[in-house]
């Protein structure tokens, strides 16, 4: 048994934030039905490569995990009426349109709770349902820029730096959507009442300013690039090795610093006093020292030291990592429409002892279940063709 067995989710989302959130709910056992437009461009559907024989991209196969999928054109009254029929049997809606769009379709929270008062309705947007920026378009890079994160990230000389993942989208929007939905489920179990959830990706990463943010509003200074303990102002940083690789150094606490000092051949640094008098000098020396050995050699040096020093690994190396394999983070998931093929996917980070997540199947092609689902509502094939 999984935690969300019996719960049903209507998913009106595209791209990454909503689909990752609903995939998480599917992994936890919810029955997720993704509703999408046949004509709307979705980067996920067009992100190569396409899996041979499966009619889906790798991204689709991942984000569609455990879900069914139908096409509906919500600009058509009959399609909206079909959603209104579905909603009587569903618990949760997740949508990712700009504010007001679902209301124009006749599918807002207020309009649907009149049909099903127990509905939990989650809206994910860049800037929230209200405020001066509510109608503004955005992507992860924009939310990071407007949340104070980018201003203190990167190098003094080079400016802000990009990571190859969507922080505001997933760590912010997706995860806060999941947390909010689960909280609303608990509330409904206690009261019988559904509710409306407003998730803003910009709001979601304001707390990611973490220590610097808390300090600033307690009277500290505005953080700048390479000025703080965690953004390159100290020894906490990446260091290039002789073969062009990198090592990550996070030896902040005294015991880790002492182990690092031993590892780089400077036992006289162990007491940490030099960090209070010449941090930049130490950093220059660490930069020089790490360039004297390859990444593999440094990895071997620190394998037996409790120093918070680890190699910077690429995705193929991570996929072979014995620790992550032991944690079940690379599951083999069946691919629909193939002859028993499976694909390795990134697994769920949620580990529950009594009700573990389940990977039922990878994603189907967009709209695959359209006729199956809508016939079940009593529509003819001709009527369904008109709706999509």
Describe the protein in words.
It is a single chain. This protein is an alpha/beta fold. 36% of the residues lie in helices and 14% in strands. It is built from 17 helices and 13 strands. It has helices at residues 17-27, 58-63, 77-86, 101-105, 109-113, 140-146, 167-191, 201-205, 210-216, 254-263, 273-277, 279-290, 295-303, 315-319, 322-326, 370-375, 381-387; strands spanning 8-12, 31-36, 50-51, 56-57, 67-71, 92-95, 120-125, 195-200, 237-240, 246-249, 309-311, 332-334, 342-344. The strands form 4 sheets. Strands 5-2-1-6-7-8 form a 6-stranded parallel sheet. It has a 3-stranded antiparallel sheet with strand order 9-10-11, with helices on one face. Helix 1 packs across helix 7 (167-191). The chain is elongated, with a radius of gyration of 25 Å. The mean pLDDT is 97.
Give the gist of this structure:
This protein has helices at 17-27, 58-63, 77-86, 101-105, 109-113, 140-146, 167-191, 201-205, 210-216, 254-263, 273-277, 279-290, 295-303, 315-319, 322-326, 370-375, 381-387, and strands at residues 8-12, 31-36, 50-51, 56-57, 67-71, 92-95, 120-125, 195-200, 237-240, 246-249, 309-311, 332-334, 342-344. The chain has 388 residues and is an alpha/beta fold. Strand 12 and strand 13 form a beta hairpin.
